[in-house]
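Hey, quick one: can you model this chain's 3D structure?
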Amino acid sequence: LWGWGQNYHGAVGSNKVLVRHSSPVQVGTRTDWASVSHGANGGAENPIFGITTAGHLYGWGSNSNGGIGDGTVVKRSVPVQIGSLNHWHKMGPGAGNTVAVQTNGTLWGWGYNERGAVGDGTVIYRSSPVQIGSLTVWADCVGGKNAMLGIKGSTP
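Sure thing. Here's the predicted structure for all 156 residues.
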């Protein structure tokens, strides 16, 4: 995985903050990325996420309101693993919050939750993933500015 650009909040993942990269630099040291996604509106306050081929979820960049999901609110200039699970299937970063689906069909959310966008029935900011409901039928998800969406179906 390679990144470049302004690198505000360490979003490029190069272990530097506010150092612009006008050509591609490797993001961290992993070489097994399966997918990558950036939050809604492309804003600098939104973290970036990647899932490895083994199903591990990583986040980096801005972490205000716990948007990365690593249990902190500390900016991350390199990818950090979110939890120890390796069952992540899809993620849908929003605007400072994220929704994700695990391979068992469960739905998870975290981050900015002032308007209830995490979906856990509260308005408490979540710095770590919390399961949304108890259903195991979620197949896909997408984040937005103040809302998240999920598709019920079957996961691979």
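One thing worth noting: The mean pLDDT is 89.
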